[in-house]
Amino acid sequence: MLYIVIPVFNRRAYTRACLLSLREQTRADFRIIVVDDGSTDGTDVMLTNEFPEVEVVTGDGKLFWTAGVNAGIRRALTHEASRLLTLNNDVLVPPDFVENMLLWADRRPDALLGALELDAATGQPIYGGERVNWRNNTSQYLLAELPETRRHGLHPVTYLPGRGLLIPLRVIQEIGLFDEQRLPHYLADYDYTSVARQHGFPVFCNYDAPLSTYPDESGQQQTRRHRSFRGYYQHLFGIRGGGNLRNFTHFALRNCPPRYMPYYLLNGYARRLVGYFLH
Fold it and tell me: Considering Cα of 185, then 188, then 189, then 190, what sign does the dihedral take?
């Protein structure tokens, strides 16, 4: 059985819209677990009254993304889940999303599968995976390389975000859960999928299973939109900071080949130190 795990903290309207889109799926052989990490906007009441089919795991407001996802996965494992799919609450999925994820999961049962991301406002593709060149810390973004005639099926990538990530049970049995101790929020998804790939599990972006996102609503974009010294500090050192130096260091040490490590680290630090002011 597929279990969909959605960590949430407030933003009730996004959660409602996401869950309503999941109700419209052409396949219904899945269950949903929402991890509500201490929301104060009535999310708990909405879930109880409007979505009785959803199982809720509650947190104390200190889980952040990684521990929230892990809490949901642990609950799913008690129900003998055979596949897990992590999903953010600020996404919308088309009716055939689960069907097309499971179709490819049946064909590639050991693979981790991510989703093609569309801008919810325009419907245009905005992220279709990337392949990293560790030597010079650059990425080949597949959307820039693939003509529209090839934007279907599976395409191998270096890592994947957790906004729509299907994980076979065997992966969890071999490498465990996400690293909530060292990567409590950002980079935990990229780290997990990269580590899985190093253990021999294929990692693909599934172009047949798009979902819609709101790119301007991410924490990184909002921090950069209102630049300040405090925002810069949070960018580099805060748990939700997209440029968190400690998180980046841990990610690099676990994933970058040793011979490329010095340049990768120096280049990455420089990008994070100045990138806050450039975007």
Answer: positive
Residue 129 Ramachandran class (φ > 0 left, ψ -120 to 50 alpha, else beta): left
Distance between CA atoms of 57 and 244, rounded to whole angstroms?
A: 28
Q: Which residues contact 221 (CB under 8 A, 6 or more apart)?
A: 215
pLDDT in tens, 130-178: 999 999 999 999 999 999 999 999 999 999 999 999 999 999 999 999 9
Structure tokens at 76: 């799913």
pLDDT in tens, 81-128: 999 999 999 999 999 999 999 999 999 999 999 999 999 999 999 999
How long is the chain?
279
Q: Which CATH number fits domain 2-217: 3.90.550.60, 1.10.3720.10, 3.10.20.120, 3.30.450.40?
A: 3.90.550.60
